[in-house]
Write a structure and sequence with these properties.
This protein has 529 residues and is of the alpha+beta class. It has 4 domains: 18-84; 92-192, no CATH class; 203-425, Aminopeptidase, CATH 3.40.630; 434-528, no CATH class. The protein has helices at 18-26, 34-49, 54-73, 75-78, 98-105, 124-128, 146-152, 160-168, 174-184, 221-226, 237-252, 259-262, 335-350, 367-371, 374-379, 388-403, 411-417, 434-448, 453-467, 479-490, 496-508, 513-528; strands at 92-94, 110-117, 186-192, 270-273, 278-283, 295-303, 306-316, 319-326, 354-357, 384-385, 422-425. The strands form 2 sheets. It has an 8-stranded mixed β-sheet with strand order 4-5-6-7-8-9-11-10. A 3-stranded antiparallel β-sheet has the order 1-3-2. It is globular and about 75 Å long. The protein starts with 17 loop residues before the first helix and ends with a helix.
Length: 529
């Protein structure tokens, strides 16, 4: 990669290959094959995320519209070759969850069309006998094939998707519905109706473009993490809707799906505008999808409006497990700065002082993580192996890297680092891990109730409500209430103040992860004493 000015663009920061620069300047896009088309779009997206000047931005936008028009005019030629590329006017072939497909059906920028059952062992008779109305349930006992069963029910090909989505909506236990729907193996085509259902046009912008005088590689990460952030932006109703759509399209157009995006609680969405054209959206999950005790918070990071990175953090008091995914076409930019800005948001919003990253992020079952030396990417920003022996090995290796020119860590050493999580400690904490908390609860159930979990749940809830001086009210029962009741009994909590905290947590956890985190921090501080 060499720096090279684009003619007449006054652009000195470009990190694209010279061959790609020539293609962009010459503009001979019609001669490109499908691989070349994808590379051009990815290059243009990078330039628009990291522009140096308004002139360069206008240049990239014009080129983007030109290439999009070429694909539109040659839609038939590119229909199969660019499938799942996320480029304008090209189709997607996907297998998504029930809830995600339902959401996609409501979007005007695309059409969702049933293609086929990819699981040859799918037996709709077994599945539909759980949901069909009594008058039609007998159809599932006749031993019909899937096609004959649908025909018998009067379901045309174009009605299959809506029919199955409606039937599975009758299953009220989310995990059961997910499992059964996934077993169907439903493959669908997503057909764009305009260019806005595509990666290059999927943007959320509120402010002026940030123009770069440099690609920021060297900075004080501690200073970034310690910097305060402005309060979340107050979004209009239209902005709120557009932001959610941009977040979800970023997943769809890369044929990915995460729980935090699919099951997003839209009322918990917060949007923070930071420096250098960066903004971060964070969001919790609907009550029926939440995890016990901790808050699984998803995020999408934007760079000049483009979704640049996504992932989530499992927040439990001062501790958080953290994962990051930077889209391929934005790598090579300010990836380190992006990581630190994300950590900064979770540090400031949730008061997290300790982050852990799992080995997959830097190489476990991930060859790219090994070949790229991703371990050292995290090491540069303060992450160290949790395992003490591996921490010492990393210190010795890092000294060699600093002192020996062109030294590279051997693959076997990088693989060994994946035997341990890595962590970043901003301040020393004295707080139980979530696995320790759940272990105390399991121990209580085994000792106090002889392993009878049904009895334990019923009695713990009843005892908790009595301690909280609340009448036993079945309409009040929730998963969060059960969590706090078990916690209360496991830690033998008796003082009114702490019980009040638990009771407040039971009611706020399903609807507000931010307030829940604040109360949880107070509770964890009490039991640590």
């Amino acid at each position: 990669m060499k720096n090279r000015n684009l003619p007449n663009q006054d652009y000195k920061l470009i990190t694209l290959p010279n061959k790609m620069i020539k293609v962009l300047v010459d503009g001979k896009f019609a001669q490109l094959n499908t691989v070349g088309m994808e590379q051009v779009f990815h290059a243009l997206m990078f330039l628009l995320a990291y522009p140096q000047s308004e002139k360069q931005e206008v240049f990239a936008l014009k080129k983007l519209n030109t290439v999009a028009a070429i694909i539109k005019n040659k839609a038939a030629a590119f229909k199969n070759k660019l499938i799942n590329s996320g480029l304008p006017f090209t189709n997607m072939s996907v297998q998504f969850t029930h809830d995600f497909l339902q959401w996609l059906l409501q979007q005007k920028e695309l059409k969702v069309k049933f293609r086929q059952f990819v699981n040859s062992e799918t037996d709709l008779n077994e599945l539909l006998k759980l949901t069909l109305n009594p008058a039609e349930k007998s159809e599932t006992t006749a031993g019909l094939s899937n096609e004959d069963l649908l025909h018998s029910l009067g379901i045309e090909q174009h009605e299959v998707l809506n029919f199955l989505l409606d039937e599975f909506s009758k299953i009220y236990q989310p995990e059961v519905k997910d499992y059964l729907f996934d077993s169907v193996g439903l493959q669908c085509d997503l057909i764009p109706q305009n260019k806005f259902f595509s990666l290059p046009y999927n943007r959320f912008t509120r402010n002026k473009t940030f123009y770069h005088e440099e690609i920021l590689k060297k900075f004080d990460y501690k200073n970034v993490l310690d910097s305060e952030i402005n309060p979340a932006v107050s979004l209009s109703e239209n902005e709120h809707v557009e932001l959610i759509k941009t977040i979800k399209y970023a997943m769809v157009l890369t044929n990915r799906e995460t729980d935090t995006v699919t099951y997003m609680d839209e009322n918990t969405l917060q949007y923070f505008e930071l420096e250098r054209g960066i903004s971060v959206a964070i969001y919790g999950m609907t009550p029926d999808r939440q995890l016990p005790f901790e808050s699984y918070i998803g995020y999408t990071l934007f760079k000049n409006g483009f979704p640049c990175a996504y992932g989530g953090s499992w927040v439990f008091g001062k501790r958080a497990l953290f994962g990051i995914n930077i889209f391929e076409w934005f790598r090579g930019g300010e990836s380190g700065y992006v990581l630190c800005q994300l950590l900064r948001v979770f540090h400031k919003v949730f008061d997290v002082d300790y982050f852990e990253v799992e080995p997959y992020q830097y190489g476990l079952d991930n060859p790219d993580g090994i070949s790229s030396g991703a371990f050292w990417f995290y090491y540069k920003f303060g992450f160290r192996p949790v395992d003490k022996e591996l921490k010492k090995i990393a210190e010795r290796e890092f000294h060699k890297i600093k002192s020996k020119q062109n030294y590279r860590t051997q693959e076997k050493t990088l693989l060994r680092f994946t035997e341990s999580n890595i962590s970043l400690t901003l301040e020393k904490i004295n707080q139980a891990k979530i696995v320790e908390v759940t272990s105390v609860i399991s121990g209580m159930i085994k000792k106090q109730f002889k392993g009878n979990r049904m009895q334990a749940e019923q009695e713990c809830v009843s005892l908790f409500l009595q301690k909280a001086q609340r009448a036993v009210n079945h309409s009040e029962y929730s998963e969060a209430l059960l969590e706090m009741a078990l916690l209360c009994e496991a830690y033998k909590i008796k003082d009114d103040e702490t019980i009040s905290l638990l009771y407040a947590m039971a009611h706020i956890k399903p609807v507000n992860p931010y307030d829940y985190q604040g109360i949880l921090l107070k509770f964890l501080e009490k039991i640590a004493k």
